[in-house]
Amino acid sequence: MPWIVGVSGASGTPYAAAVLRALLxxxxxxxxxxxxxxxxTLLDETGISFRDAHWRDDLRDWLAxxxxxxxxxxDVGADLDTDAVRYWGAGDLAAGPSxxxxxxxxxxxxxxxxxxxxxxxxxxxKDLLQRAASVTxxxxxxxxxxxxxxxxxxxxxxxxVALDDAGASVVPASPAFYAGATHIQDLVDFVAGxxxxxxxxxxxxxxxxxxxxxxxxxxx
Length: 220
Description:
By secondary structure, the chain is α/β, with parallel strands linked by helices. The chain has one domain (3-217): Flavin prenyltransferase-like (Rossmann fold), CATH 3.40.50. The protein has helices at residues 13-25, 36-46, 55-64, 77-80, 114-122, 128-138, 154-165, 184-199, and strands spanning 3-7, 30-34, 85-89, 106-112, 142-147, 169-170. The protein has a 6-stranded parallel β-sheet with strand order 3-2-1-4-5-6, sandwiched between helices. It is globular, with a radius of gyration of 17 Å. It starts with a strand and ends in a 21-residue tail after the last helix. This is Flavin prenyltransferase UbiX. Keywords: Flavoprotein, FMN, Prenyltransferase, Transferase. It is an enzyme of class 2 (transferase). Residues 2-198 form the Flavoprotein domain.
């Protein structure tokens, strides 16, 4: 069964890329939903135009880029040359993930905008991303919401509490520094790793805390 990965319009497309790379490297299958707003963010942050008719080529270009925007940082050819990824258009409300009978392990929304958070919390289902998240909750499956915004308004905080009450895991895109980050990619990978931790997906994206002070200053 696949993991559904939803990418909303919040800034933070490198977080989504890191999660997708880790899932594919770990042998997981992915159902990908890219919102219309996130295409504008992706274009702004990477220069990549994500096109429905050429999604596999565009996804390959996206995942090959590091958090600094430089192309060909990662080799993702082998992962994307398989059928491990299935793409669904955000406007396709008849897509597989729109139904509870469609088999899936759960859903990761990364990054999650405040508009996306509100839509899922209120059950609006205005596009496939929101509908798939609502289905994930009603079926009792894992839903991880990696909210990326600051500061957070009271309204958004109430929406996040509602998602927590409904069984979702709320993971703010808040990198930590105890893992010994030396590059922007390390900070991105920490957030992506915490998203995967919340979903119970094994990975090696960051150095874990061992209870020993000073670990961040020593070689990994």
